[in-house]
Specification:
Layout (H helix, E strand, L loop, with lengths): L2 H8 L9 H19 L5 H8 L3 H22 L2 H5 L1 H21 L3 H29 L8 H26 L6 H18 L25 H31 L6 H21 L5 H25 L2 H29 L2 H32 L2 H26 L15
Helix pairs in contact: 2-6, 2-7, 2-8, 2-9, 4-7, 4-10, 4-14, 6-7, 6-9, 7-8, 8-11, 10-11, 10-12, 10-13, 10-14, 10-15, 11-13, 12-13, 12-15, 13-14, 14-15
Length: about 425
């Protein structure tokens, strides 16, 4: 093949010499995998009507997905370093396509749970492999920067999956089938794109299937835990929004449209991406306090929405929570990158995200139990208060431990 032909097939190169189509193929596979994980959000009320399950069941279905991500991160977090990015990405998109197919054929709760587990493993595999592949395809100084491409694919998929499913459920026939047919087709396209993309990992280690232990380096333990608690509080809100926003809109606001439910979750995840992009505008010493204050404001808005049964505070709360969560997330990952030895960095990042996804799952089940014991409104108000308290605890700990002499060694000093 001549160089001219090769350039034609790759679509040319950007200013840094990176084949654009290869980057696009990896980013698209990442996007569609993550989109499939939030697509059920707008459809949960329909599944509840069809299969006759309760709000608690919905939160359990969601939690199964999140715990699947945690287990996938711990079991397969290093797999792409061992066997390469392409086979792991192919496995992720194949699982995403399989999950869409299982959803398409779902006739009972057990099948839904299987589909959610598959989605969780797909997300776990794609997160590390796609991020690493994009980083290897786009050299330092490339435009757009690799972290931005990975972020847009990740959070963009999470945001748009639920909105796409909601629109299809409202506008197209067979609302429990049409979204999954579209997701299945998109996943197959992503699989084909990755299959024809060359491997990017230059160095691979021997394959070993071993459980990756949780690791928090002693030198950053206190700062790590503060960042994880703040970002985890935001993830808890994201999890509850994803699990029960459709229920709230339908039963409290009497707004049964699935597009609206998808829009609430879209707003939350899109603002999480925006928060990660804006973390650089904060001084290291102010980023985490600002995130904590944002979480307190967000939970106050959501409690107001629950108490008054109005939509505007819910949308504002989702946006503010997303921004605050993104800032805390960007701050925490940047601190790990700057202050953790390279040989322990991957394990530490995996531990950080394992904590966040556990926070995504467990509180959602707690809210489901509260809804069953009381009702949706008081459960939402109690949950908002608990998240605000957690954010306040982190904020007070930051105030108590602030020391000007630590300015140059603070956890968040090195920005992502």
């Amino acid at each position: 093949m001549t160089p001219k032909t090769d350039r034609a097939l790759t679509g040319g190169k950007n200013s840094s010499g990176t084949p654009r189509i290869r980057v696009a193929a990896v980013a698209f596979a990442f996007w569609v995998t993550m989109a499939g994980t939030t697509a059920p959000t707008a459809l949960y009320p329909l599944y509840g009507e069809r299969f006759g399950f309760t709000p608690l069941t919905v939160t359990v279905i969601f939690a199964v997905y999140a715990m699947g991500v945690v287990l996938g991160l711990l079991a397969f977090g290093r797999l792409s370093d061992q066997v390469g990015r392409r086979p792991v990405l192919m496995a992720a998109t194949l699982l995403a396509a399989g999950a869409a197919g299982v959803f398409l054929a779902a006739e009972n709760l057990g099948v839904l749970l299987v589909a959610r587990v598959m989605s969780g493993f797909a997300a776990a595999l794609a997160t590390g492999a796609a991020t690493a592949a994009v980083t290897e395809l786009i050299p330092p100084g490339g435009r757009p920067p690799a972290p931005m491409v990975a972020l847009c694919a990740n959070m963009g998929g999470l945001a748009s999956g639920t909105l796409l499913a909601g629109i299809l459920a409202d506008e197209v026939a067979a609302p429990l089938r049409s979204p999954w047919i579209v997701m299945l087709v998109l996943s197959v396209i992503g699989l084909v794109g990755v299959a024809v993309t060359p491997e990017t990992a230059a160095h691979r280690s021997a394959f070993t299937l071993a459980w990756q232990p949780l690791r928090i380096p002693a030198e950053i333990r206190a700062d790590f835990l503060r960042s994880a608690m703040a970002a985890g509080a935001g993830f808890a809100v994201l999890g509850v929004l994803t699990a029960v926003s459709g229920l709230f809109l339908g039963t409290v606001l009497h707004e049964p449209g699935h597009t609206l439910a998808g829009s609430v979750v879209f707003t939350a995840f899109a603002c999480t991406a925006l928060g990660q992009l804006t973390v650089r505008r904060f001084r290291p010493a102010t980023a985490l306090p600002a995130a904590c204050l944002g979480l307190i404001v967000a939970t106050a808005l959501m409690a107001t929405a629950m108490a008054t049964g109005t939509l505007t505070p819910l949308l504002l709360g989702a946006a503010v929570n997303g921004l605050a969560t993104g800032i805390a997330l960007g701050h925490g990952v940047g601190g790990i990158a700057a202050r953790t030895a390279p040989e322990h960095r991957g394990a530490t990042v995996s531990t950080f995200f394992a904590i966040l996804y556990a926070m995504l799952a467990v509180p959602a089940i707690g809210v489901g139990v509260l809804i069953r014991a009381t009702s949706l409104r008081p459960a939402g108000e109690v949950f908002s208060g608990v998240v605000a308290l957690l954010a306040l605890v982190v904020l007070l700990s930051l105030v108590r431990t602030r020391d000007p002499r630590r300015t140059r060694t603070s956890y968040g000093d090195a920005r992502p």
